Amino acid sequence: MALNMEKKQEVVAEVSAQVARAQAIILAEYRGLEAGDMTALRAQARKAGVYFRVLKNTLARRAVADTPFAPLAEKMVGPLAFAISADPVAAAKVLNEFAKGNEKLVIKGGAMPNTVMGPREVASLAALPSREELLAKLLGTMQAPIAQFVRTLNEVPARFVRTLAAVRDSKQAA
Questions:
Q1: For the chain, which residues score pLDDT lower than 70?
Q2: Which key words are in the record (predicted)?
Q3: Taking the domain 5-128, which CATH number applies?
């Protein structure tokens, strides 16, 4: 189905809005992928908060023009699906996980602001923990000394009470 000029402008505006909030854009070739698999991939992307869209490369080039993702336009060749996310790891993780189970989805590359990545870099990015995991680890690391300090402070009165109980028991026994 061909898009008229007005529809194309709407699509470019929608994708441009996503690119403006993006921290990562991942490109994947979907040649030979069945419709059911593509639907499953879209569902996984939506669940992870990733904007996933099959788009004409000319429209995608217009959407990334004059953004930090402009160098990515050189990689836009062939039938591509675009995964755009505000979490730099989420898009790479979703596509990488899906590509492991389906060899017809081939990751062609990606970009973070002012940095173009190849398939290897995208796989490395997908191996990183997500933002939530990193925040949880940071919080655990920050809480550990405080928790240990509280346990130490709590041990002083507890030891005193145990000593008093031992003295009381020894006096009662004598």
A1: 1-3
A2: Ribonucleoprotein, Ribosomal protein, RNA-binding, rRNA-binding
A3: 3.30.70.1730
